[in-house]
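Saturday, quiet lab. Running sequence design on the structure tokens for the scaffold JK sent over.
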């Protein structure tokens, strides 16, 4: 009998090998899946929505190298209200980005923030006295330059081509819950330019009366600069957004900038560098093109404001700072990464040219678009002194009262009304810790000493 040809070992070996490979692959997949589930997600709460929020979120995703925690971003226009609600619910974000030094100082003193290892970075991130120890509690992510005037290239004015003509100022005071800040920017810039950084810093930190000649004079100078206005014009400015009005003929109506809002019929706008996104099309090296009315030029506001030339090199600035609200050590590491060179490079790459952020250091990538490039040069070297937005350095209660007072004064700039408003602001100043002189440790005015508000541009 002939036996059948059998190769049992050889026949079964490939099957066993294949089965083993499949089991190893399945184990690897299961292990990887568990690892992904074990990766903790850190939440960043911030103010950027729309295209700005998209760019920041894209940077955050690229910053995630896949080896540690994952990051998620939640942007909102109601940042303060959202953060307060989360804190009250006992569920704060790991990291929050705020533009108010006054709010951040209150959170630090209320033991809501985790101290950082940063040595401090005035005027963006000064050291704060908490429980007898001076520490840094936040770091700047992006910054901004104020003390600028945008104007139509063909317009005449103090800094314009022909000179002598009185600027017709664009004013849009509406900004949802924070309406009034375009007016406080005017007052702050006037205090800085007329009286210098030292007086400005004392006022911003609660050490100078609102009824002092230096502060009161800034309010009256603003009214004089704006000139006579009809009730219709005043009402329009109070209800018009700082971004201007949309073009009703456009297929997709969007803000077009105050200079291009025909309802206002104005030639000059006092506004921060961020507004350049509304005048984004390049027009040479000195400005941005603003639609059918021609080009838009940007100049330092000192060329338009009354005050000593000695203070021309001082500029008002603002910033968005990141602070750690959770006890997770990984959140502190994230803040360090967000304020580092890699994150700044990625953010610059992801943002549209007219929305690229300004960063505090001369070595950081900066906007190069018209207007943005000039502002970046001032921020990182040409300016002598940078002073943080005074209202954002004040305690929130005083800042909010300042906003309301500006709206009331804009409607009625009489001397009696001004005296009443400044008296009310002095009352709030006293209630929030203001003093009539410097106090040890910088304990007045929300906890910031005067030397924390103004500083030279930074190299890093």
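Result came back. Writing it out in full:
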């Amino acid at each position: 009998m002939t036996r059948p040809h059998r190769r049992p070992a050889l026949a079964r070996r490939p099957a066993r090998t294949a089965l083993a490979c499949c089991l190893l692959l399945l184990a690897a997949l299961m292990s990887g899946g568990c690892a992904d589930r074990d990766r903790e997600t850190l939440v960043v709460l911030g103010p950027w929505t729309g295209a700005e929020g998209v760019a920041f979120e894209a940077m955050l995703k690229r910053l995630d190298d896949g080896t540690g925690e994952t990051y998620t971003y939640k942007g909102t226009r109601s940042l303060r209200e959202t953060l307060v609600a989360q804190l009250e619910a006992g569920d704060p974000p790991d990291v929050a980005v705020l533009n108010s030094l006054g709010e951040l100082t209150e959170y630090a003193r209320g033991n809501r923030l985790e101290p950082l290892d940063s040595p401090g970075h005035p005027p963006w991130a000064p050291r704060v006295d908490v429980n007898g120890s001076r520490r840094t509690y936040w770091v700047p992510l992006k910054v901004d330059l104020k003390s600028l005037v945008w104007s139509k290239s063909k317009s005449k004015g103090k800094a314009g081509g022909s000179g002598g003509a009185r600027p017709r100022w664009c004013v849009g005071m509406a900004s949802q819950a924070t309406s009034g800040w375009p007016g406080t920017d005017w007052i702050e810039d006037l205090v800085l330019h007329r009286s210098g950084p030292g007086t400005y810093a004392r006022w911003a930190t609660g050490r100078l009366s609102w009824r002092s000649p230096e502060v009161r004079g800034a309010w009256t100078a603003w009214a004089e600069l704006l000139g006579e206005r009809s009730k219709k014009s005043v009402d329009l400015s109070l209800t018009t957004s700082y971004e201007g009005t949309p073009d009703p003929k456009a297929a997709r109506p969007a803000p077009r900038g105050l200079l291009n809002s025909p309802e206002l019929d104005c030639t000059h706008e006092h506004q921060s560098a961020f507004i350049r996104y509304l005048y984004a099309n390049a027009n040479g090296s000195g400005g941005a093109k603003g639609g059918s009315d021609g080009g838009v030029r940007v100049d330092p506001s000192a060329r338009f404001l009354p005050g000593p030339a000695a203070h021309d090199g001082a500029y008002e600035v603002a910033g968005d700072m990141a602070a750690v609200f959770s006890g997770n050590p990984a959140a502190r590491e994230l803040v360090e990464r967000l304020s580092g060179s890699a994150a700044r490079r990625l953010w610059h790459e992801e943002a549209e040219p007219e929305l690229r952020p300004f960063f505090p250091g001369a070595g950081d990538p900066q906007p190069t678009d018209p207007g943005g490039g000039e502002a970046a040069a001032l921020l990182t070297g040409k300016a002598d002194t940078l002073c943080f937005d005074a209202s954002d350095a004040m305690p929130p209660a005083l800042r909010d009262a300042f906003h309301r007072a500006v709206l009331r004064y804009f409607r009625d700039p009489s001397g009696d009304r001004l005296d009443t408003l400044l008296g009310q602001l002095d009352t709030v100043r006293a209630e929030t810790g203001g003093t009539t002189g410097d106090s040890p440790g910088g304990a007045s005015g929300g906890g910031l000493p005067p030397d924390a508000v103004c500083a030279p541009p930074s190299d890093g």
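Notes for JK: The chain is about 40% helix and 15% strand. Residues 1-37, 282-294, 438-446 have pLDDT under 50 and may be disordered. Ask whether to fix the surface positions before the next round.
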